[in-house]
Amino acid sequence: MTVRYEYSETLAMGRAARELGLKTGEFELAVQLDEVGTVPPGPGDASGRRRVPAAEIARLQEERGFPDTLRERIRVVGATEGAALMGIAPGRFLRLARAGCFGPVRFYVNRYGAIVWQYLAAELSAFAGKECSLIHGPTPPPMRALLCSGQDWRGRLWRSRRVAQLVTEADGSWAVSAVIAAVLPPEELAALVRDPAERIWLRKLRPCLSSAGANTTRTRAAVERAETAEEFDEVMWYRISLSRQLDAVRREHPAPALPPSAAVPSVAGAGSGGEGQVEQVDEPTEVGEAVEAQDSGGGRTPVEDRAPASEIKGDVRGLPAPATVPSPRARLIRARTGPGAQSPAGTRPRAAVTGGGPARHGAFLTRRARASSGRARVQSPSFRKSPSWTTETSSLPSRS
Predict the structure, then answer these.
(1) Smallest Cα–Cα separation from 386: which of 189, 229, 234, 241?
(2) Of 31, 45, 62, 382, which is most buried, counting CB atoms within 10 Å of its CB?
(3) Residue 98 to residue 108: CA distance in whole angstroms
(4) Residue 67: is the preceding peptide bond cis (ω within 30°)?
(5) Does 100 or 254 have the greater pLDDT score?
(6) How far is CA 86 from CA 125, 254, 322, in A?
(7) What is the pTM of this model?
(8) Burial (CB count <10 Å: 0-12, 13-18, 19+), residue 222
């Protein structure tokens, strides 16, 4: 289906891929590499996806050798095939890639949870024709020091390329800020952007960096590791870029204010006679999210006894906890687990979620909680200091 936009006929992404004879992944890479030009959606387009002008399709179809020439320009290879294309050993190819001599254009996660980088075959052939000394000669001392320090520029160069592509396609200053913020670690972004409204707006406009599937926990962790800046100098580069961009955006168009539903009333200290407090959260909560209230025995009530946030209105400061009517199932649970209840013969109390102590009344372990109760919490990795010899983030290492 085609539509009219700014006096030119445009096609949807799927229709354009079929017209060019490309698969979905190939067409996506062709758009990222600017081999296929796109335009923003029209005012009446509800999908919000970019479209391809019909003139761009006609231009590519008129090329000599179509569609083989287009496929050759977007052909990607792995490390083994890339080493064979350049006529070197896979080990030397890996060292050149780690040193940043050429960067990958995409990646995927294999079944073992490892990141597999893919490179543009045309870029590898061009590099092999220009840098014969790096391919067949000895490794320069600066590059050897870089590799000995454990540096790996593959992820950094992919993020730099992807950020540049998304900044070009971004619609508006806040969209550009969201692209830069997408590669920063969460703790760095929270430290830089203090306003919760701005963080919500950046999270809402956050683009999709990669199309790698994240079906399992291991795969999701690998994708997040590839999409997030790691080294100290890279993080500082994106922090400075985002800070400058936000300074200009705030003067031009401030972030929308948080809706009233973002302030979630949280009753604190109701069981001990304390006053209720209103806690401000970063994101608006769902309407059905429960507000915890303490029962007369001092413990937390089950999920059935909690009052929904939508039923608590007005200023709750200085008011006692809202009264709740326990459901029949909650009364049955209290009768079985409350004070004075007798445990059946041959049974023993379950361990609490927090450890191996006596079970708390009304607290039950789920299957996931029982599986992870003995595991230690993984600490967030700290940034390593830059080595004595580094290069600027915005440029590649010297190729002379």
Answers:
(1) 234
(2) 31
(3) 17
(4) yes
(5) 100
(6) 7, 51, 72
(7) 0.64
(8) buried
